[in-house]
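Bench notes, afternoon.
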Amino acid sequence: MKWLGRHLMVKGEYVKLMLSGVKKATIRIGKVKLKYNEMIVHGGGRPIALIKIKSVKYKKVKELTDEDAKLDGFKSKRELINELRKVYENIRDDDWVTIIEFEIVKKLNELDIKDPWLGLKPVDIARIALRYNLGLTEKEKEILLDLTRTRSLRRTAINFFGTIEKRWIIRKILKKSLHRLIEKGILKVK
């Protein structure tokens, strides 16, 4: 059994298919359990979307259908199986696969410059920032990591500074992270 956390990686060639709504699922070899029902998808070296998981199904390769293929952005089961064999060279008909169906909650190539957080939640900014080398200090990374756990500026401020009055420090770190994510081209704004 494999576990999948907050980040889902896809090949760069699938980015357009996902963002256009053609690819609504991803198929992974083996039985994969998801820790969360919301994830950040990364492709082509950057985060591309926030998704919500609609369903997780397990099938053997031989049980895959044309419908499964279409959800994953392929025209037919045959095309899907050919692609799976390219990615997973030793895949067999009796191997288990996990079909993860999702919906896009927010495309990260259409961020709103007018919104102070670009339309993202602070916790999502923290998750993305921790995924890339932004030159943050260890203390800044610790604060962002705590924010991903607490999901609350207030709780993180109390954890690190003993008072909610120091939330401004966390906001400053988040703004610095956003600035660097944009500067490096990891996030794009309209």
